[in-house]
Amino acid sequence: MRGWWREIAGLVLPVACGGCGRPQSELCESCRAALYGVAPQRVRPAPEPAGLPVVHAAAPYENAVRAVLLAHKERGALPLSRALGRALAGAVRAGTGQVGGPGPLLLVPVPSARRAVAARGHDPAHRIALAAAGELRRGGIPAGVVPVLRQRRPVTDQSGLGASQRQVNLAGALEVVAGGERLLAAERVVLVDDLMTTGASLTEAARAVEAAGGRRGPGRGTGQAAVVAASPTAFAINRNC
C-alpha cells in the first residue's frame, strides 16, 4: 500500500530532480548524464572477495548518482526506477556482450532483508531489475526477472561493517527458493543489485546460485553481475580486465 501511495504522490506533487533537486524535472539532463551518460565499466573492490562474479557498473557511487539511489531506496522516489533501470540495463549489456544472442537473460536481484523491505515499502533492487528488463526488451534483448533468492537467516545491518565483517555477516545467508533451481539451470543468469561496495552481497548471491546448481552468464559457466553503481575506488583499479 505504501508503494502505491508513493507512486500516486509522484504524479500530483511538484517534481524536483532526484539528483540535484532542480525543480520541474524528475531527473535533469546533467544527472542523467552522470547516471548513464558514459559506458559502463567492469569494477573490482579491494580487497576482492573470492567467488565474486565479473561485475559491471554504470556509474561511480558519488554526487548525483548517490543522491538518486538514496532518493529511490530510502525516500520512496519510485519513478526514478526508470532511469536507474536504464543504467542497470547498460551494465548488463556491457557484461554479457549481447545484442540479442541465443535464449533470454534472467536477471536475479540480490534480495533486501524483509525488515528493510517492510520499512521502505518496496524492494529497490527488484524494482530496478524490472525496469532494466523492460529496457533490454525494448532494445531487442529478451530478458526477464525472477526473484529466486531469499534470506535464509537474519543478518546484521551492513552499514558500518568492514569488508571482512560483511563477508562473515552474509556467509550462508542466502538460498534459492524451492523450484528456483530449474529456472536458473534453464536460462542465462545475471545477478543484479543497485549498489556494490565490498562485493560481499554479490559473492554470497553467486554462492547460493551455484549451490542450487544454477549456471550464470552468457556461457552458463562464467559468473556475471551488474549494478547501477559501485564505489569510486572500484572504478579506479585497473587490472587489465
Short description:
This protein is of the alpha/beta class and 241 residues long. It has one domain: Rossmann fold (3-Layer(aba) Sandwich).
Beta-strand content estimate: 15-25%
CATH topology: Rossmann fold
CATH class equals Alpha Beta
Based on the structure given, which CATH architecture is correct?
3-Layer(aba) Sandwich
Number of helices: 10
The SS-based structural class is alpha/beta
Q: What is the chain-wise order of helices and strands?
A: HHEEHHEHHEEHEHEHEH
Taking Cα atoms only, what radius of gyration do you get, to the nearest Å? Answer: 17 Å
Q: What is the overall silhouette?
A: globular
Number-wise, the strands total: 8
Counting copies of identical and different chains, the oligomeric state is single chain
**Low-pLDDT windows of residues:** 1-13, 216-222
Q: How are the strands of the largest sheet arranged?
A: 1-2-8-7-3-4
Distance between the termini: 44 Å
Mean pLDDT: 82
Describe the model:
With 241 residues, the chain is α/β, with parallel strands linked by helices. The protein has a single domain, classed as Rossmann fold (3-Layer(aba) Sandwich). It contains ten helices and eight strands. The strands form two sheets. Strands 1-2-8-7-3-4 form a six-stranded mixed sheet, with helices on both faces. Strands 5-6 form a two-stranded antiparallel ribbon. α9 (200-211) links the parallel β7 (188-196) and β8. It is globular and about 50 Å long.
